[in-house]
Amino acid sequence: MAPSDAPGGSLWQGVRAYFRQDLLPLLADLRLAIVLLLAIAAFSVSGTVIEQGQTLEFYQTNYPTDPALFGFLSWKVILISGLDHVYRTWWFLALLIVFGASLIACTFTRQFPALGAAQNWKYYSQPRQFQKLALSAELSETDLAALSNQLVKRRYRVFQDGSQLYGRKGIVGRIGPIVVHASMILILLGAIWGAMTGFFAQELVPSGETFQIRNIFDAGPWAEPQIPRDWSVRVNRFWIDYTPEGKIDQFYSDLSVLDRAGAEVDRKTIHVNEPLRYRGVTLYQADWGIAAVQVKLNNSPVLQLPMQPLENDGPRFWGTWLPTKPDMSEGVTLLASDLQGSVLIYDNAGQLISTVRRGMATEVNGVRLTLVDVVGSTGLQIKADPGIPMVYGGFGLLMLGVMMSYVSHSQVWALEQDGTVYVGGRTNRAQVAFERELLALLAELSNQSAPDSGRDASEGTDSAELAQLPVS
């Protein structure tokens, strides 16, 4: 039995036939690529509009079931469909994979054959062949050598075989679409790799403390190796610059990266739009808070009391309760709203007793209370996306491919027969510019062939019969 007659061979031939005759043409269909691209764009927009990687309480608060946004978009729909982590859902990754397969199919079924056709040219051996070209002419007083020289001056690559001539330039324009497709495939691969291996975390760290990345909100299934275990970050200092009106101008975090032994391996002061990057992990300045207040009671050591944010609809406040008697029968409430060193003091009845600033003291419940400092905490967003280098490289390649695609692929044929030179050409774009170039070339040949005496150079075109056909 021949190998092709075996059951396995028949099955394999059937699969190959289905792939070539049905699946490959479907994937290479431009309409399918447009639909996939629009779907990817639409879901990408939804991932930008709908907050990603938030808690269940966040979605329940902002996307209630009654009334649902647009009549249908509730927190249940978001969580069930995966719109809370769009870029890592199986259906979004499937869209990227199918779109990449469509680009690959189009590249191999259309772009490579087009490039091959541009390279596998043929000479024209019959005058009637020139009638099919968009632009053609017949010259009676010139030769192929002069035409070849003019083409070389115009950066054409010229091939000649006896009385037949072919010239071309701009073959890079045929390579451009292939580069564009390759760049888009690289971008898709980078997006998929980043979705599978990246992670997103948030940390709120007081000044002076060291932390490791643990509070991870969203991570890909292969993100574990990307989460740093062998280095940590110390917040050396966090501070806020205020405007003369008392508004926040900018907040800063002085960060140090520490190895396992606690040695500093990197250090940077970050602020909004100026992150710290280390070994593929980026730390952004995103938020701030008040971590603690430091006080002294009479001559006691410095006491550091943690402060908690208060829930209210107005300005942000942080508060803590400070006992003023050992049995905790009396105490005061301390409130702070910023890091400018001002603290409000309230008694147990909720009445404002005093306002103190950093370094100042006041008398409360028979005790001298001194405000030493207000300790701030920095809010950091931490991201890792190993696919970013591929995405950036893909975009760079895309720009190069687009510029290459704008280069016109121009071709010129010529045939010398019975004292007449037949010339014609075509281009894939910039038709008017190619017309002007070819007509200028023919005029130059006519001027060169005219006698030097008794004629004006402008009369040189009389020696050539220009037969311009309608541009198709």
State the share of residues found in helices, binned by percent. Answer: 25-40%
Number of domains: 4
First-to-last CA distance:
56 Å
What about the largest sheet?
Answer: 7 strands, antiparallel
> Stretches where pLDDT falls below 50 for ≥5 residues?
452-472
Rg, rounded, reads: 37 Å
Mean pLDDT: 86
What is the general shape? elongated
Estimate the strand proportion. 25-35%
Question: What does the secondary structure layout of this molecule look like, with pairings?
Answer:
Layout: H1 7-27, H2 30-49, H3 56-62, H4 75-81, H5 90-119, E1 135-139, H6 144-153, E2 157-161, E3 164-169, H7 172-197, E4 199-206, E5 210-211, E6 216-219, E7 232-242, E8 248-258, E9 264-270, E10 276-278, E11 281-297, E12 303-306, E13 308-309, E14 318-323, E15 331-336, E16 342-346, E17 352-357, E18 361-364, E19 367-384, H8 388-405, E20 410-417, E21 420-427, H9 431-449, E22 464-465
Antiparallel strand pairs: 1-21, 1-22, 2-3, 3-20, 4-6, 4-19, 5-7, 7-8, 8-9, 10-11, 11-12, 11-19, 13-14, 14-15, 15-16, 16-17, 18-19, 20-21
Helix pairs in contact: 1-5, 2-5, 5-7, 6-9, 7-8
